[in-house]
Structure formats: structure tokens, C-alpha cells
Known about the structure:
five-stranded mixed β-sheet; 3 helices; alpha/beta; 37% strand
Amino acid sequence: MQASTKINGTTFEIALKDSMSFTDHEAFRKLIVEAGRSGAKTCVFDLAGLKAIDSAGLGMFMIAKDEAKKGGWDITLRSPKGPVKTIMVLSRFDKLFTIHS
Length: 101
């Protein structure tokens, strides 16, 4: 997984690229800590560049959701494509997260 971050007003944006799997757990946790410390009200994960995600990757978003709830900020998932969008639909992530195409 490759990630880049930026702050846009009260929004912390994280753009993810390549694939997301268990081996990315530590790096993803660091991103969540960074988002929480930023003071942003919303964290947007831009998934347009993410080509694949496994069940561990999905689980990481659930961890992020818990951390956001504890920290008083929201999470939005943006632009999932191809297999990533398919697995999120099948996993009913649209019931758990705000997802923008």
C-alpha cells in the first residue's frame, strides 16, 4: 500500500494506492493516528488508486471507524473502483460508511 496525506480545511485526506492487505496494518495504524492528531473533523480515504483489498484490509477500515468514533471525527470512503468497489458492496460497507463514487 502506498499512501499520501493532506489537510484541506477540516478534512484530513488519505489517498491509497496499489493493494491493501495484512502487511499494511502497521502503516495504516500510523495513518489513523496521524488523522486523529490532525484535529480534522472528517477523514476521507481516496480509494481511486487502490487496485485490491483483502479481508484484513477491510478490517483495518473497521478499526479506523472505531478510532474515529472515539476521537469524534467521521470517515468517508471516496471513489472505490473495480474489485475494491465490488468487495465493499458485497461486504455491505455502504451500511457502515459514507461512500462517494
